[in-house]
Design a protein that fits this description.
The complex is a heterodimer of chains A (149) and B (82). In chain A, the strands form 2 sheets. Chain A has a 4-stranded mixed β-sheet with strand order 1-4-6-2, sandwiched between helices. By secondary structure, chain A is of the alpha+beta class. Chain B is built from 3 helices and 5 strands. In chain B, 29% of the residues lie in helices and 26% in strands. The relative contact order of chain B is 0.28. The chains are: A alpha+beta (149), B alpha+beta (82). The interface between A and B is medium-sized, with 26 and 17 residues.
Chain lengths: 149, 82
């Protein structure tokens, strides 16, 4: 299980490849699922995004979420990478990868991780554009999404 | 003495990321009342605690939680990770 919080970019392809190679050496793994989150610019005018986080709590909160997913879906491995600092539209913000015996578990665990990272990992996004800056508000749907787990 | 941390717009409204606070507050809600009484910027930041979240020693908690033994309190808006 690996959790990395970092400002620097990551190479999604290389991370997926490394994760798959690392987990599939074991013969019990039949499915690897990965998800990449990207900076989306709905207005078409965003200059950049800045992501603030709570060092210490971020690592603890994500490790707890990842451990819950690992135990619940009997995952062979979990990887979470989340960036902070300045990011530009189209850049990779975060990724998760899960490895399990069967694909249903790997997909469900990845969705669970994403739902929990959205509203339980201490990150805050601020968008900067030509008219100034504003904090991204949390959505009710994101909180509601937790209810299904 | 406890460490009080602020994040995102709470940090911006109060104007600092963290401070040490001497308090006899029994609960988080009591601490919030003490802070609000200090200055307008605190009153503005804590005007509506329903729009805020609190963590005690880096674990998500709630405003009715006791502060006994707590070393670090953090206030922030709902999180927007992912």
């Amino acid at each position: 299980m690996s959790v990395r919080i970092q400002a620097r970019p990551f190479d999604y392809g290389a991370e997926c490849e490394g994760f798959a190679r690392g987990t599939c050496g074991g013969r019990g793994v039949g499915a690897v699922v990965s998800f990449l989150g990207v900076v989306r610019d709905d207005s078409g005018r965003m200059a950049r995004m800045e992501i603030e986080h709570y060092p210490g709590m971020t690592e603890r909160a994500i490790a707890a979420i990842a451990e819950e997913a690992r135990a619940r879906w009997s995952l062979a491995d979990v990887l979470v990478i989340h960036r902070h600092g300045a990011l530009f539209p189209g850049e990779a913000i975060m990724m998760v990868a899960t490895a399990a015996r069967h694909r249903t578990a790997a997909f469900e665990a990845a969705e669970f991780l994403m739902d929990y990272l959205k509203s339980r990992a201490p990150f805050w996004k601020k968008e900067f554009g030509p008219d100034g800056a504003g904090w991204v508000a949390a959505k009710d749907e994101d909180e509601d999404a937790l209810a299904r787990w | 003495m406890i460490d009080v941390l602020y994040f995102a717009w709470v940090r911006e409204r109060i104007g600092l990321p963290r401070e040490k606070v001497e308090t006899g507050a029994a609960t988080v809600a009591d601490l919030v009342e003490e802070l609000k009484a200090r200055e307008d910027r605190y009153a503005a930041a804590f005007a509506d605690t329903r729009s805020l979240r609190v963590a005690l020693d880096q674990e998500l908690s709630d405003f009715s939680a006791p502060l006994a033994g707590v070393r670090e309190v953090a206030f922030f808006p709902p999180m927007t990770g992912g």
